Amino acid sequence: MSTIRFRALEKANSRTPIHVEELDKKSTIFGSNVFNDKTMRQFLTSEGYKAVKSAVQHGTKIDRKLADYIALGMKEWALSKGVTHYTHWFQPLTGGTAEKHDAFFETSFDGADPVEKFGGDQLVQQEPDASSFPNGGIRNTFEARGYTAWDPTSPAFIFGTTLCIPTVFVSYTGEALDNKAPLLRALSAIDEAATEVAKYFDKNVKKVTPTLGWEQEYFLVDKALANSRPDIMATGRTLLGHTAAKGQQLDDHYFGSIPTRVLNYMRDLENECMLLGIPVKTRHNEVAPSQFELAPIFEETNLAVDHNSLLMDVMQKVAERHEYKVLFHEKPYKGVNGSGKHNNWSLATDTGINLLAPGKTPMSNLQFLTFFVNTIKAVHDYEELLRAAIASASNDHRLGANEAPPAIISVFIGAQLTRVLAELEGVTNGKLSPEEKTDLKLNVVGKIPDVLLDNTDRNRTSPFAFTGNKFEFRAVGSTANCATSMTTLNTMVAKQLRDFKKEVDALIKKKDLKKDEAIFNVLREYIKQTKNILFEGDGYSEAWEKEAKKRGLSNHKTTPSALKAKVSKKAMDLFEGLGVMNHVEVEARYEIELEEYTKKIQIEGRVLGDIARNHVIPTAIKYQNTLIENVRGLKEIFGKDFEKIAKEQLAMIKEISGHIEGINSNVDKMTEERKKANNLTDIEKMAAAYCDKVKPYFDIIREHADKLELMIDDEIWTLTKYRELLFAK
Ligand code: ADP
Ligand code: MG
């Protein structure tokens, strides 16, 4: 009997749900581990409090002396909650989060005067060892050291006994070494551009804030079972494994009740989220067995991004207590749905208006249409860059594989808005007659209902769908840091809004048009220009692939091919033009992502080779020997008749040999291709080689191994099977 697998199964089956204490009402505990408004009022001087507020609202700098006072208050609060250490918490380009803990405790060299110390210096800046984080050549070029700097717009929080201070991570020459710094710049760019445009409609608008509500999908698997699979441990997904006889066909997981052990995990997780001020709201089963989703109330984008990164950490930590492992991988199991991270995005004004929500008056609807059409135009112009922003080795299993959504970026807007755009296309060029204006206001713009019935979740195949009062970017991968896609999207739209403003102002000035006439004129042209990006049909169909090709839309199915758009002249100009990233920062990210892709495929290749040879082949031989023995016995008993009687066994012996040969020879070939790829010095070529030369062997090897899994005695099969991984509670 296979000991690892069966011992793991025994463990998994004997678990009992962990008791979770019911905490106080959610509203009472919410944010109690966050240095939020309420706590700041309590622990800061009014000067310090005002400085932080102004930094959050207007981006003003906090001077050093004030920083000392703020640090003092923060320390006092933290110590009152039993905190012993502090860390600058940041998001390096590896994805994930990083932290380096320092104790508050300090003493003089002779051990006298022990104190808990934490001053402005420690709050504002820290120097982690940057050499251990990827920097894509930035450091080499500038011989710069990296430092982390406090981001006062995202509040400090306590996790465990550590005070975590959200920071950016930059080189001494100012290049961003992390995901947050470019995001903050993109948010500021769109704030500026969108505020200017919003002022056409309301002079009082002073600030526009992009909002983000992510939806995080994930799989849970029992810890013992996960540990029994070397592929899950090393790569986060199964590289082998035959589909379970029962998968998601019956949809019984989606509509079923949440198992108690899982529910307790979720409750525990939600309690932690509440303390950390992450406003999680919904939880439910997803389509695949053991797949779930968690979604918060949307927030300002920088905070939402931090919260998602933090959540992914917390999820794994809480899972430990419940003997689970969380799989964030986009496709942990073949044959069942994968996981995504839908990014719901909109723009909110400081006057309390959602710029992507239809309003009650014609003017507010014209404002809505302005932001709506400009977003479509931005996606149209930068579709390839948007695709690049979500490219990763693991997301390749969704985009462009047999999985939702496709690798082609398109925008779904629903039938009602399609009709509105069609009508706007007919707007007269230049000045509008009073009759036309009235007609537009009453019958076109005025008739947009404030609830758009067909903009719910109906078209699940669209990668970028308008869902009534926000756009939902669904192609983002479940492992992704939201910062990458949010930086790209907000920069694109910022650029578009800037251009729009220029065009409208020019029409007002040169053609003597009224403001609304000018807006109608520019929107009309955009609608004409961007039809190619709109698609309402089935995004998974072959017909769409063909149609999209005709329309000239990109369809990059793999990361190395998709990433190229990041370093195109168009992308460089965009990021540089808006001050979001200079070309060194863009190129560095490109290189890091290619490297990460290469390493991921390399590791998968190695692990696959190992388990195919060390698990599958020995088991196959063991079983084959049993068959051989059986055939020998039959021959002994039946003499020359044995061939007829042992027919099936003989065929199986041969078939097993065939699969063993298939695995062995292909692992050899794959290893050969890896060697060749490793000898390449150009990272672009290396990534392409891993993609086109190494990766194709994965499916071939898997095919043989999965066939063997079906043939071989279940008792001796060593790798925990899909039905066990997917259905254990
Ligand atoms: P559902 O799609 O489940 O019916 P909603 O459409 O209300 O629910 O919201 C889905 C997600 O969109 C949630 O995570 C929510 O926080 C987010 N969301 C809702 N409104 C906005 C907005 N204006 N900006 C960003 N995200 C939003
Ligand atoms: Mg959704």
TrEMBL record:
Coiled coil: none annotated. InterPro entries: Gln-synt_C, Gln_synt_N, Gln_synth/guanido_kin_cat_dom, Gln_synth_cat_dom, Gln_synth_gly_rich_site, GS_Type-3, GSIII_N. It comes from the Bacteria. PROSITE patterns: GLNA_ATP, GS_BETA_GRASP, GS_CATALYTIC. Residues 84-174 form the GS beta-grasp domain. Residues 179-616 form the GS catalytic domain. PANTHER family: GLUTAMINE SYNTHETASE, TYPE-3 GLUTAMINE SYNTHETASE. Belongs to the glutamine synthetase family. This is Glutamine synthetase III.
